[in-house]
Hints:
This protein is of the alpha+beta class and 471 residues long. It has three domains: 2-167, no CATH class; 194-303, Aldehyde Oxidoreductase, domain 3 (Alpha-Beta Complex), CATH 3.90.1170.30; 312-355 and 377-470. 65% of the residues lie in helices and 7% in strands. The chain has 17 helices and eight strands. It has helices at residues 2-13, 18-43, 55-91, 96-102, 105-123, 139-166, 169-187, 202-209, 213-218, 240-250, 282-299, 312-327, 334-351, 378-393, 397-411, 417-437, 441-470, and strands spanning 224-228, 233-238, 253-256, 263-264, 269-274, 300-303, 360-362, 368-372. The strands form two sheets. A five-stranded mixed beta sheet has the order 1-5-3-8-7. Helix 3 (55-91) runs parallel beside helix 6, helix 10 (240-250) packs antiparallel against helix 11 (282-299) and helix 13 packs parallel to helix 15 (397-411). The longest helix is centred in the first third of the chain and has 37 residues, at 55-91.
Amino acid sequence: xxARLENLWDxxxxxxxxxxxxxxxxxxxxxxxxxxxxxxxxxxxxxxxWFSTTALAARSTLSSVAGATIALAGVxxxxxxxxxxxxxxxxxSRLVRNVMGASIADLVIGQYIGTSLYCMLILQNVREAHxxxxxxxxxxxxxxxxxxxxxxxxxxxxxxxxxxxAIQAPTIILEVSRDLNEAINRLFPERIGxxxxxxxxxxxxxxxxxxxxxxxxSGVGKYNITVPSKxxxxxxxxxxxxxxxxxxxxxxxxELMCKPGDYITQDxxxxxxxxxxxxxxxxxxxxxxxxxxxxxxxxxxxxxxRTPRQDVTYAARELVEIALRALSPGIxxxxxxxxxxxxxxxxxxxLVERSCPSQIRRDSESVPRLLITTADGFAEVLKYSFGMxxxxxxxxxxxxxxxLEALTxxxxxxxxxxxxxxxxxxxxxxxxxxxxxxxVKADLISFQQAFxxxxxxxxxxxxxxxxxxxx
Length: 471
């Protein structure tokens, strides 16, 4: 349930309707409150001199504010659409989600629509004396409407400043890199179902982690329920806690055959649920299979696109996409690509320090309940991050040197031999691609010097990781 709520909140956060709707409801409640306050003041015959106004002045003020703010809402909406169009063509349509999430357009539009709605609701209560009907001028309501109008003017200046800075490449790269860093913090070491694990003795934990999938499944039994997908699309998130609860309920193990970011076709295998005992009657067996299928399909969230909440590879891909577009012949902006490489290097330097989460998830009693057969680790993210940039950027000397610099920075944080070997493979692949594209001796010398520096650091780091094993 938590994963679904987080995914729902992420879709709300990157939409343009959620905040204006909330602010419109707040405007309605504010109008009702100020009307009640004005009614109390009118019945008590008390006058607030600094709020005092006439019915004609109140009507004119509220009408002007309501008309001006709703017109400004249209202007802000038009500017926002132009901004999104530029971001889509310059950085890629998939980056529109990040621009929308970081934009204040929904807040500004909500302010303008809410102010206009408030003024119209107050305006209908302005009455002049007619026959036996007494005059009523909402003093407080008019003053609040005027204050909201002044705030709206200030927000217009703020919005123009925000648009001028938000469309710049460094700002967009910063926002995308924040998504990547947040994904790393969420998923390493915390993964799906991690909160359900109980702290146990370190030696016992080491013994448990040495168990293989076959050993765990052999202790459960041969009866299993295969769960096909009922929908087609990308996996946006997986509620691991619910899958662990399902394993506890059935006294079995859930073998997860997919991961966030995978594209799933209809009827494709999502998971196998291994149970201790099969139900006695055929009717109960069919009911159990249907319940398991519905539960697994509910907790595996399938949508239209990938999201970075549980998919660290996709978070890195967003930076890669900006870099590749910058390196295209039509744009030819290596400086933007170098900024992306810097951000990727910083994020992967943090990632290589994190411990790889176990693919065996346990319940509160340390019983295996969830087996994750596929998962992205440092090696996959590194290859995905620099592989495509190497392919298109190896012909550019400065970009290639920047990649070596990033790999050097990542190596300084690496402490596992397998991670160091992956970095070495990526550096050697870059060396091969660079030498194929360059014949200028000065460029080759510069690259070789940077490569030798990285290679020496790799050798030093590898010796340091082997020393504890030899001792």
